[in-house]
Design goal:
Shape: globular
Largest sheet: 8 strands, mixed
Order of helices and strands: HHEHHHHEHHEHHEEHEHEHEH
Strand order of the largest sheet: 2-5-4-3-1-6-7-8
Number of strands: 8
Structural class: alpha/beta
Distance between the termini: 52 Å
Length: 331
């Protein structure tokens, strides 16, 4: 009996070590992922996909890391305005900057999209791309989330980190396709997710080549929008910057709907997944009525199309890595 018991323990231990998704609870959601990966990677199988065509795309905000109480890039922009305020005394009386400096988020919100664009413009332009990257990394080292009191880049989702690694181990090439700014994401995503900067598709502003004061060439960020990689812009961005239709895509909001539709419209085996935020204790619970990461039309499309919907509360053993990760600067 002792030998049998020890053998059972050994088998359980071996299975645990082999589990590529240990932070996912066993069930239909986890099985849908592993079944799909097995389906498209089995040599000689009817749905086998060559490695070159195993493209997986992921939204970032709300899919790979937290996005509440507001997008983290917005938190960065607000902090940048505060840091720049000494050079702009006029901001003390000008909205939306006055609201930012007085921590009056109602006043900031009252400015709507126009006000937010003003904040983004002053905090994301008028500098070189190298200077901007440094400001992002400096902010990540010091800023803390208002609820969790952890670095923003430690609020990545542990189950999604495992999923990214699992896909890459099975010959997939993983991309970020996000409405967030491409210059904001590129400095830190490789260390956070194992996704190199050249595999990041995001919204972008105009960048201009010019010679610096020291005679060396620089790229200057201008206060002009070049491309919005959200909603219907995501399939356009995938086509423009990746050049292959994904066979696997994950999102969490209506902003990802068209990417998921584009992915599943291709021939052969396809996977579309949605992270549904249902855990108000460990993270947040929101969907159809949320101003951030609204999930309404995409949730209906998932039901109609048989897409995989991850119930964060039920399907994830862990939400964030157990200890704050040091993810700031890439080597």
């Amino acid at each position: 009996m002792l030998a049998i018991s020890l053998g059972a323990v050994a088998c359980d231990s071996a299975r645990a070590q082999q589990d590529p998704l240990p932070s996912w609870n066993d069930g239909p959601v986890k099985k849908s992922i592993t079944d799909f990966v097995s389906q498209v990677t089995t040599q000689g199988g009817a749905d086998f996909v060559p490695p070159a065509e195993r493209i997986a795309t992921f939204d970032n905000d709300g899919t790979l890391w937290c996005e509440q109480p507001y997008y983290f890039q917005v938190a960065f922009a607000l902090d940048q305005v505060k840091a720049m305020a000494t050079r702009h005394p006029e901001w003390k009386t000008q909205q939306p900057f006055k609201g930012v400096l007085e921590k009056d988020m109602k006043a900031v919100a009252a400015g709507g999209e126009k006000g937010l664009l003003q904040i983004i413009a002053v905090s994301h332009s008028g500098m070189t791309t190298d200077s901007f990257s440094k400001s992002v990394l400096d902010w990540l080292e010091t800023a803390r989330h208002p609820r969790f009191n952890r670095p923003y880049n430690s609020l990545v989702y542990q189950p999604m980190l495992e999923l990214l690694a699992y896909l890459r181990a099975n010959g997939f090439k993983t991309f970020i396709v996000s409405g967030g700014g491409i210059e904001f994401m590129r400095p830190w995503v490789e260390k956070a997710y194992g996704i190199p900067p050249e595999q990041v598709v995001g919204s972008s502003g105009v960048v201009k080549f010019q010679m610096g004061a020291d005679g060396k060439p620089v790229l200057m960020k201008e206060a002009k929008v070049e491309f919005i990689d959200d909603g219907p812009g995501k399939p356009v961005g995938i086509n423009r910057f990746i050049g292959r239709r994904p066979i696997f895509a994950f999102g969490n909001s209506d902003g990802d709907l068209q990417m998921l539709q584009w992915t599943t419209a291709g021939t052969g085996a396809r996977f579309a997944g949605i992270v549904h935020h249902t855990d108000e204790v460990r993270e947040y619970a929101y969907d159809r009525q949320s101003r951030i990461g609204k999930l309404d039309k995409a949730l209906d499309a998932a039901a109609a199309g048989g897409w995989t919907v991850v119930d964060m509360k039920k399907d994830w053993k862990e939400v964030f890595p157990p200890t704050p990760a040091t993810i700031g600067r890439s080597p």
